[in-house]
Amino acid sequence: MIFHKTLKNIRKKHGFTQEEFAKKLGCTVEQIVAIESNVKPATYIFVTLLRDKLKLHNAPITESERSTLMNGLYNWKLAIDYADISTAKMLQPELEKSVRASYSPSAENFYDLYAADYYRAIGDMKAYEETMATLSQRTDEFSARHLYYYQRLVGARAFVEKRYQEAIKAYKKAEALDKNNEWHDVRFYFGMGMSLSDRGYATRAIAYLEKAKHQAMWNKVYNGRRNSRFDVYIDGYLASDLAKIGKIDDALKILDKRLEIEMGKNSEQGMGYTYFSFGRVYYRVKNYDKAIINYDKALLCLDVDSDAYIASLFQKAMSLDASNKKVEASKIAKKGLSITTDELWKTLFDALAHSTSLYDDPKSSIYLKETLIPKLLDHGQYEVAMYYYKQLSDFYYEEGNSDVALKYSNHAVDINELIRKDLIEGDM
Hints:
77% of the residues lie in helices and 0% in strands. It is mainly α.
């Protein structure tokens, strides 16, 4: 009828000793001890007495009520995961009320963990930050599953803040907690895959992204829909990493299918992100004209304040720069600097702006090599850093300083070796 730990939690939250509790309820101390020790079950009469004396008529305190509450939390999580925001919003107030009245620490743990995801999904970043701060300061012991989910949230938070190496560490901690893969779902595989990809570990990223794609397409069904809200991003990251290791045809096949799906849904944002992914693949094979065309299509579809819009803007500028259209690339770099406040994007646009002015401004080479390239390396932007080392090498060669040109050429070779090592061995 009532879980033995629940009775103990009710007693302690009301500040009663076992003797005081027995007196309040009008029963014996031995009866309280027996139920709390899980020696004897609580009778229906005892539960009724408990509700009446402590006014717990609407509180879910029995085992069956607790089971219903946990199922409700799981359904809420599914609504969040599959972007059914209207259902998630509808369920949230009553769930929070029931959880807070339940005297169940595990229910409260799961509610707070899912709430962090919920606030992030609805765009309430202030509430998300507050919830994460509260979770990080907890002193009670989480179960392994709670810790697993918490580490996933830490990873997601680090990824959003572009702290990719920290994100990978958090996801690896989560992975260690779930040795039997019982709890891994699309969100775990996707989060780990994205973090590895943005840090530059293409081979490892592909392995996790393929698992995420499998989970999203086949293992998870919500309200009759197989696709999760991550599918367009999974396909985009997967295509980009496949292109990195030379599997261009496979990458384009994935994106052709994804574009067909997004067009069928009439999803502007989905189409925009897919065009952006096409651009990255064509950039990879140095077909800069096709890359620019796709980035232009992406910019027409995407919201101006989205990260994907900024990324499309930057990649278009890089494609123009690689095509030796320095003036156009410089204009886009200046536009990017004017519309983003993100530290990494500002570094990327700033580096591009200075690389386009190497031959016009003597200070550009100094600022690029001493300030901007080290920042790019700190952020794991190895390929971009390698690109600018090559730019510096060409610049100094044309200036007649072959020794310095060779130095930066060797830096580019060293970074290329790091990238090649990952592609072949998947090292971290």
